[in-house]
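User: I'm curious whether this sequence folds into something compact or stays loose and floppy. Could you predict its structure so I can see for myself?
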Amino acid sequence: LAVLDLFPIVSWLLLGGKCRYCLKGISWSYPLTEICLGLAFLLAYAASFQLPTFNFQLALWLIMTVFLGFIFIYDARYYLILDQVIVAASIVAIVFNLILGVNILNMLLAAAVAGGFFLLQFIISRGQWIGGGDIKLGVLMGLLLSWPTVLGALFIAYVSGSVVGLFLVATGKKGMSSQVPFGTFLTAATFVMMLYGQQIINWYLNFLYV
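Assistant: Here's the prediction. I'll summarize afterward.
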């Protein structure tokens, strides 16, 4: 590829959505992915305004945005969550959270609860309700978000997944027994709680005690 072909979004527009050499169409999903990831980076940067300076917290958010974005896209397309990506992301989450002073017991508790929650579903349903990748993703969610923030991510994922699933069934695009890439909802919910978890928890607690 030429250098001018490597600029996100701009290159796709300049090329008219086609390969420079074979003239085959380039899927709109590529610039859409670039736009979404760009917006995700902007949200992470905007959320960092509450931080005293550019530090390890923002670095963690930016790195995990890449991991979560990859998991989201790959699961949406192939209904698969890659082990090597989960392992790499988990190592990053552990190292950065330890540097940031996150309590290791809270991290392990969150990983055990989220991973164990999906493992229990996997065992009960014999793999019909949930996939093995979701179990590992649950562990990653716990290591990244810690306790009790991971509970908020699980709640958001299940609510949003239910709403979207019912919409797809109502519009005839999915059946009641159709598979849905649940990892996409888990990663999106993890991203939200990673940036705004404390604010969401505070809002919820204030709502309960008003």
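Summary: The two ends are 59 Å apart (CA to CA). Residues 104 and 199 are 22 Å apart (CA to CA).
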